[in-house]
Design brief:
Residues 31-279 form the Orn/DAP/Arg decarboxylase 2 N-terminal domain. The chain is of the alpha/beta class and 426 residues long. It is 29% helix and 23% strand. It folds into two domains: 90-273, Alanine racemase (TIM Barrel, Alpha-Beta Barrel), CATH 3.20.20.10; 281-403, Beta Barrel (Lyase, Ornithine Decarboxylase, Chain A, domain 1), CATH 2.40.37.10. It is built from twelve helices and 19 strands. It is globular and about 70 Å long. The structure holds pyridoxal-5'-phosphate (PLP). Pyridoxal-5'-phosphate (PLP) is lined by residues 53, 55-56, 74, 97, 190, 193, 229-232, 273-277, 370.
Length: 426
């Protein structure tokens, strides 16, 4: 599918007068249409809820939009819980799916009334000692081990993943939790990341639904909710076919009717914890070409760097790039598009065929709406960019300002680093 930016060249030319590059731009209209489609795709399930994976895009403005459609928050750290709390998203609207969890985070999650999703059998005792009880509602994360294959080569290796209970531990865990007073049980699993196929959720649902039936038969424990977690992917490459959430919802519906309904488990609520699918395609990184360099290769130096978008540097991930105003020009130049970090992997694209780029051209790096800004870091003292929301009516709003040197140095409590500096804030 041809990848087109959600913003026009005219709009962007206006935006950069107001917001200096680089910045992440988000598409409110796209986010709303998508969350509405997600809601409809699972409307057949009475208890359905999407818990937005806050780590994907921890911005209160974005989370609030999703919450309007009933989305809760999937949190796994103190500050993610704080963000949810600050937005008034509390109680069973929070899924606390953490691992290697510090005690104070279990305490805070419990105070908020969050659903706690345990990552390990030893956390049963740890939780009980930490909060003085076992909550009535509790969930466990399952890791089947081995290799998990969905379809045509889409697979991962749960055996190498640090998460979850083994099957034996899971059965033992539920038995212990029931004995300690738990009354409502959840089952969770996350087996493959960024799946660009409509088959992943249905395949995972089948695995978990069959397991829920087995748990009922062997332990006489009724699972109340099954959490398919994240992993629904984004078509980052133009040759990929984007996932169809309606087909995914129908696929889960089908196995639900085949497996859970006949087993008397037709009241089970289906939960999801999607991050990438909820916001990934509805964000982009806007950056400007600053330098061109001709050595053994052709380089375009832009004003963003891997500190603003780590995925290409970290995973060699593909992010599509549009040179604004040259959407229909032939892609007859081969470039490495690079940032300024003193790290040779700071490249948004390698050997990418693009139209001829001139200094001052605006580049849109696509699909940065999830795990984009959020994975930012401060290496080389590079600062976080701003985040801007392009609203439905075409106006824009700054939803996070850019970091300043003052922010960057703020943790030197015992050394006022800015005091004797000749740096001018303007
Ligand atoms: C990261 C994560 C998610 C979201 O994953 P996506 O790939 O962004 O959908 C959901 N649940 C848990 C526990 C996670 O760690």
């Amino acid at each position: 599918m041809k990848k087109e930016p959600f913003v026009t060249n005219e709009q962007l030319t206006e935006l950069v007068k107001q917001f200096p590059t680089p910045f992440h731009l988000y598409d409110e209209k796209g986010i709303r249409a998508n969350v509405q489609a997600v809601k409809e795709a699972f409307s057949w399930n009475r208890g359905y809820r999407e818990y937005f994976a806050v780590k994907a895009e921890p911005n209160p403005f974005i989370i609030r939009i999703l919450n309007e459609y009933g989305c809760g928050c999937d949190c796994s750290s103190m500050t993610e819980l704080m963000l949810s709390d600050a937005l008034g998203i509390r109680g069973e609207q929070i899924m606390f799916s953490s691992n290697d969890t510090p005690p104070e985070e279990f305490q805070y999650a419990d105070r908020l009334g969050a659903i706690i999703n345990l990552d390990d059998i030893t956390h049963i005792d740890f939780l009980e000692q930490t909060i003085g009880k076992i909550p009535e509602t509790i969930s466990c994360r399952y890791n089947p081990g081995g290799v998990y294959e969905v379809s045509n080569g889409i697979m991962d290796n749960p055996q190498d993943a640090k998460y979850g209970f083994t099957k034996e531990q899971l059965f033992e865990g539920y038995r212990i939790l029931k004995q300690k007073g738990a009354k409502r049980f959840g089952l969770h699993s996350f087996l493959v990341s960024n799946t660009v196929t409509n088959d992943y959720y249905p395949a995972l649902a089948k695995t978990l639904f069959e397991l829920a039936v087995e748990i009922k038969e062997k332990l006489d424990i009724t699972i109340s909710f099954i959490n398919l977690s994240g992993g629904v992917g984004v078509a980052y490459r133009p040759e990929e076919q984007p996932n169809d959430i309606r087909a995914i919802g129908e696929g889960v519906h089908k196995v639900f009717d085949e497996i859970l309904v006949p087993a008397g488990l037709g009241d089970v609520a289906v939960f999801t914890e999607m991050g990438r699918f909820m916001t990934g395609p509805y964000g982009c990184l806007v950056t400007k070409a600053v330098h061109e360099k001709h050595t053994y290769k052709e380089y375009i130096g832009v004003d963003a760097c891997a500190a603003n978008l780590m995925r290409p540097a970290m995973y060699g991930a593909y992010h599509h790039i549009t040179v604004m105003g040259k959407e229909d020009a032939p892609c007859d130049h081969k470039y490495d598009i690079v940032g300024s970090l003193c790290e040779n992997n700071d490249k948004f694209a390698v050997d990418r065929m693009l139209p001829e780029i001139e200094k001052g051209d605006l580049l849109v790096i696509h699909d940065t709406g999830a795990h984009g800004f959020a994975m930012g870091y401060n290496y080389n003292g590079r600062l976080w960019s701003a985040e801007v929301l392009l609203k439905e009516d075409g106006t824009s709003e700054l939803i996070r300002r850019a970091q300043t040197p003052k922010d960057y140095f703020a943790t030197f409590d015992c050394f006022d680093i800015l005091k004797d500096m000749k740096y001018d804030e303007t």
